Amino acid sequence: MSPVPLIVYHIPYRTGQPLDADALRALGSLAGVAGVKYAAGGIDAETVALLGRLPDGFAVLAGDDAYAVPDAGARRLGGGARLGPSGDGALRGARGGLAGR
Question: Which of 6, 16, 39, 91 is the most exposed place for a label (fewest CB within 10 A)?
Fold first, then answer.
């Protein structure tokens, strides 16, 4: 296991290999994986499916500039913010979520 939290990069328009919500959740449940940089090019059904059921302590970081800060409220989607219902800071939440993994 890595001595530091790992972030999965999901950038299908660059890799040509999209991952669905189930695959990203499976990666997120692995020991040491703290989150995903999610740059799918938009907020689509897979994005909603992923956000609807995240593994504990798994952060989703906005990877597309256009979606980085669509809301200045408590639930920002910025690169340093959790893209999900709690609005917790991703790095803080990701590190805390690794306890016991």
Answer: 16
